[in-house]
Amino acid sequence: MFQNEIEKLTKFGLSLDILNEYDLVILPENFDEAESIEELYDTDDSIYLVKDLKDKNIKCASFIDLKSEIPFKERRGGDIWLGTSWVLNNLLLPLYLNILSNYIFEYIGNKKSKSVNFEKQNVHLKIKIKEEKTFSKFEYDGDSETLLKILKLNDDSSN
Amino acid sequence: MTIVQTKYNNEVILEANQTLHELHCLFVKQEFEFVKAKLLEEIKIYRDKFLALNQVGNEEAKNSILLMGILHKAFYELVEVIMFMKDEKWLLDKIIVKLTWHKLWNCRERIDFVSYYIDGEFINWVCTIIKIIDEEFLEYFGHGKYSSPTIVCKSIICNICRDDFRKCSHRAGKIYNGSICSPVKDISKVEDVSIVHNPQDPRCRIWPWELDENRGQNGDIDIQIRTTVMVAFRLDDFLTD
């Protein structure tokens, strides 16, 4: 039962209780790969995603809420780095995906004076969804428009 | 014609509408030197008004002056760009090309920022001009490549509430009582610099003349790039100019 996830949590000194305390946690993008807490870092888009989720009154936490301060990494490229999301209450999955897709849509499309000079932005994210005895995993590294189409398909099918 | 529309309806906005309308007409008549000088005067007036209000003024007054100061600075930079481009050979002058691109992006960032709060024909008109200039750059220089550093910060503090920016509810680039939320980063290192097509800061463009290619005796190609990696830019720099 979620053996990998439990090992990871305990490795970084986190209690298993978080699985009950929160509906959603946004963890550092290298949470699965990091060998020690010193290697972990937050990314700027994941910070904004957490703010959006909290605004919608979702019981959501980032690593700094759960444990301690970790460094923050800013990549000054146009890609969107959204970290690793653990959806712990799968009833919230449609709302989470909706907020996620709004975030990406706003990011790529809200500029009044949008430039013709740039190509499509890529999105990098991992989503783990807690099910009864396991986590199912979705990992995406690709262009933003395709991801928005996938999220829209999911939204249509859940309505 | 309504030049700018905001949720605020006060003297600052009414006066700005009048001034921008007059300056827009003069711009169309190509009175660029006059428009530039007048905008500089207006920007200074906004700065003085804002600094006088900062301690005691109400939120609406501060926000209105801040927004109008930034909008006038955007217009000022647009006039500068147009004046650079008046010379038919501007595209052949490396310094002018780089400066024009830089100022165009300053202007664009300011317009993107104020357009969150302000609407109206003036904003649309500026966006149309920016787009025309953008297409000229695209036609002449292509999509371009850009340097993009990855920076690691020890901390990131909100300038509005002084808390860790990851914990507070403030949003970068939004106005709170006359201040723009702009998290303060304590940079510990620059981890790497990538070359990308899609940068966060287009001012870090690598221009063709910044590449130096040398072929060594054993046939290896050594490429050296001398370019801008990071730019310090403040939307409200009219307050400190």
Number of strands of chain B: 9
Low-confidence stretches of chain B: none
Spatial strand sequence of the major β-sheet of chain A:
3-1-5-6-7
Q: Give the strand line-up of the largest sheet of chain B.
A: 6-3-7
Tell me which oligomeric state these chains represent. Answer: heterodimer
In DSSP terms (H or I, runs of 4 or more residues), the helix count of chain A works out at 6
Helix and strand run of chain A = HHEEHEHEEHEEH
Tell me the major beta sheet of chain A. Answer: 5 strands, mixed
**Strand content bin of chain B:** 15-25%
Structural class, judged by helices and strands of chain A?
alpha/beta
Q: If you compute it from the alpha carbons, what radius of gyration of chain A comes out, rounded to the nearest whole angstrom?
A: 16 Å
Q: Indicate the structural class of chain B.
A: alpha+beta
Instruction: Give the CA-based shape of chain A.
Output: globular
Residue share in helices of chain A? Answer: 25-40%
Biggest interchain interface, per-side counts: A-B, 32 and 44 residues
Shape of chain B: flat
SSE arrangement:
The complex is a heterodimer of chains A (about 160) and B (about 240).
Chain A: H1 3-11, H2 18-21, E1 24-27, E2 42-43, H3 44-55, E3 60-62, H4 63-66, E4 72-75, E5 80-87, H5 93-109, E6 122-130, E7 135-143, H6 144-158
Parallel strand pairs in A: 1-3, 2-4, 5-6
Antiparallel strand pairs in A: 1-5, 6-7
Chain B: E1 5-6, H1 11-28, H2 32-53, H3 59-85, H4 94-114, E2 118-119, H5 121-141, E3 145-157, E4 175-176, E5 179-180, E6 184-196, E7 205-206, E8 211-215, E9 221-225
Helix pairs in contact in B: 1-2, 1-3, 2-3, 3-4, 4-5
What are its keywords?
heterodimer; A: 159 residues; alpha/beta; five-stranded mixed beta sheet; two-stranded parallel ribbon; 6 helices; B: alpha+beta; three-stranded antiparallel beta sheet; two-stranded antiparallel ribbon; 9 strands; flat
